[in-house]
Amino acid sequence: MDRIPPQKSSSFSPATFREERLGRNLSLGAIKLSEHGLTERVKEDRREGERGHGVENAGEEKGAGDATEAGGDAAALEDVVEPDLAALSEEVDAFLAGRDGDTAPPGISEVTLDKFASAVEQEIGQSEGTEDKWAAGENGEAPPLLAAIKRLTALAAALTAAAEGSKYTIGVHRITGVLHRAMTFVEDEFQSTLEDPRVAKAAQTGDTGSAGGKSMRRPPSFGHGADPDRCVIPSSDGSGAGGENSPTFPPETVDRLRGMADAMITAGYVTECTQVFLVARRNALDASLQSLGYEKASIDDVVKMAWEALEPEASTWIKAFRHTINVSLSGEHDLCARVFPGANDGIGRDIFVDLAHCAMLQMLNFTEAVAMTKRAADKLFKVLDMYEVIRDAGPIIDAFITACADGAAATDSESSNTDALADVKSELASVRSRLGESAAAIFCDLETSIRADVGKQPVPGGAVHPLTRYMMNYLKYACEYKNTLEQVFREHHQTDSDDDGAAAGESSNNPFAAQLMEVMELLHGNLEAKSRLYKDPSLCSIFLMNNGRYMLQKIRGSPEINAVVGEAWSRKRSTDLRQYHKNYQRETWSRVLNLLRDDGVITVKGSVQKTVLKERFKQFNAAMDEIQRTQGSWVVSDEQLQSELRVSIAAVVVPAYRSFLGRFALHFSAGRQTEKYIKLSAEDLEAIIDELFDGNAISMPRRRN
User: Fold this and answer.
1) For the chain, which end, N or C, has fewer CB atoms within 10 Å of the first or last residue's CB respectively?
2) Of 441 and 346, the one with more pLDDT
């Protein structure tokens, strides 16, 4: 035989209403009509009812008495007319209203109580599986089912009062028993409405694609090759998930939730109501985070993760945290306020605070773990991203605290919810502080990295050093977080008080700028030390030019880092570049130019010394061959610098050579002698110069005819 799955609130099923009502009555001992003692009690109730209410209930009580006198067979209940909920409700209302007046309140019979309880049971049983059982009436009145349950609640409270407790012992058992089962039914309905799959689906798919608010800043891959592409960093509008609101329940659903919550709270089932709401909404928050790709992880698991695996997890956390703060919590705050308004406002605030507290602590565990991991330069940008979203969450938490405090003041209620939110704010501040300390320490560790780079192998061709490329790209991206880093350094970094000159004044106002300048100066000093690894002074100058030009272009190409470094530093580095250029020309081309001068040795007393002239041409050819062979393999990657060098060389050397040829070429006889000593024309010399610094060494070209 197949097992039938359990049905929710099956005790109210209409198909078994009479049988189960009989079973409940017998088990509770509430109305055993076959017993002689109870029969007399019912008759007495009937007489009292006739005195108090006339004869409006006489027919009912007489029918009950006749059934008892006919034999007390429980099966006779099958012949009882179905209870009229509307009529019974009027009688119950009269009983409840009479208790509030100055005159003696009217009584109510045990039979009426039983019939009313049965009518409510039947109403609940008939409503199972229907879609509109919680729908309001045509004129906006409470749904009939909800009105019946609230009336049952009021009746139970009246009957259990001290003055009535002994008089309605059986009725109290009957009414409170049905009330408890009714509350179980409402609780199940409350939970299923909160967890409506259609609503859950809408909440999870409403805005998962843009939950990050602003695009995340991807840290660069600071390799030693080509410059990484610059990431676009749109500004955040603070609106959370792309400016869209949190998915919410439809108004009619909120009305039903509010009605059910009010019924449970009025009946004294506050704990059950709040627990169901909390669990359902916590599950909804968890589902929302999972839809964003965020999975909870312990602190130990995070600390043990390699950065390659942890970095994408941090990006997901940032997106999920921003969505939770800007979208989810705002939506939950609104839902709590609408489901628990008015007198229940304090309950709604407590629930929201519990939700916010759990959500925040769950997510802040991740940041705690990240702050505990070993510091490394490539972690800086993700740490700053996390710092920023936590910092930006502060005003939102403040707004929640203010709203809860104002609500508590308006209702003259004392609640600990503002204290709990203050704890959340304190925890946010603590985690933010640890992330700030970590970021400041990581940036300061750049000094250690530069000092530790003491490689003894020079870069081939005097090209840009990998350290220069790495550091300048790193500093450029760091300055895109300029405002955040300035805040971090003001809060978490103490500068030395003995800094001199402008650096001292700068550090007192902007410790981050002072630290960045310290890194730049260290890098500059490190490069000067590395330039001394080259034996050729000319190549030493090319190396310094290459690296200095790269640094200067990175600064001028980035408004963020240029604003920190300042024009004074850029002008100083430009002056350095001009000096490196002069040094190169002096070391390389001054010697060549000296060979093209008539210093009184070639022409003596108006006569050309042909032997000396031949030697000069031989020396010049050898010098150009050496320059072409060696400097052809040197590298100047910046096209503008390369062009400037070639133009400046050609502007000095080519005219001098053309003039030298014009004066002395005629002293060689045409033919083999000319070809032997004059191997280059002025155009050949220009071609050689135009091929320098491209990293390809070539032999000196043959003389052009």
Assistant:
1) N
2) 441
Domain boundary among 549, 583, 617: 583
Nearest CA among 527, 549, 521, 552 for reference residue 635? 549
Instruction: State the greatest distance between any 2 C-alpha atoms of the chain, in Å, as a whole number.
Output: 163
609: containing domain: 596-690
DSSP assigned state of 373: S
Q: Say whether both 259 and 165 belong to one domain.
A: no
* 705 within a domain of the structure (yes/no): no
- Mark residue 125 as left, alpha or beta (left: phi above 0; alpha: psi -120 to 50; beta: remaining): alpha
CB atoms inside a 10 Å sphere around CB 618: 14
What distance in Å separates the CA atoms of residue 318 and residue 385, rounded to the nearest whole number? 7
> What token pair was written down for 28?
């509770």
Identify the weakest region by mean pLDDT among 201-205, 291-295, 362-366.
201-205
Q: What share of the chain is helix, strand, coil (3-state, %, to 5)?
A: 70, 0, 30
Distance CA 453, CA 455 (A): 6
Give the angle 568-574-576 at the CA atoms, nearest 5°: 105
Interval 464-498: pLDDT, tens: 999 999 999 999 999 999 999 999 999 987 655 44
Tokens 């709270």, residue? 265
Q: How many other CB atoms are there within 10 angstroms of residue 35's CB atom?
A: 13
* Arithmetic mean of pLDDT, 401-416: 67
Secondary structure of 514-562 as H, E, C letters: HHHHHHHHHHHHHHHHHHCCCCCHHHHHHHHHHHHHHHHHHHHCCHHHH
Do 628 and 638 contact (CB within 8 A), yes or no? no
β-partners of residue 604 are 607
Which of 367, 402, 433 delimits the end of a domain?
Answer: 433
Q: Are residues 315 and 356 in the same domain?
A: yes
Domain total for the chain?
4
Q: Taking 60 as the threshold, does the pLDDT of residue 80 lie above it?
A: no
118 part of a folded domain: yes
The answer to whether 467 and 526 are in contact (CB under 8 A) is: yes
User: What is the C-alpha to C-alpha distance for residues 491 and 287, in angstroms, rounded to an integer?
Assistant: 37
- Determine, yes or no, domain membership for 465: yes
- Residue 700 maps to a domain: no
CA distance 290 to 479: 33
Phi/psi of residue 93, nearest 5 degrees? -60, -40
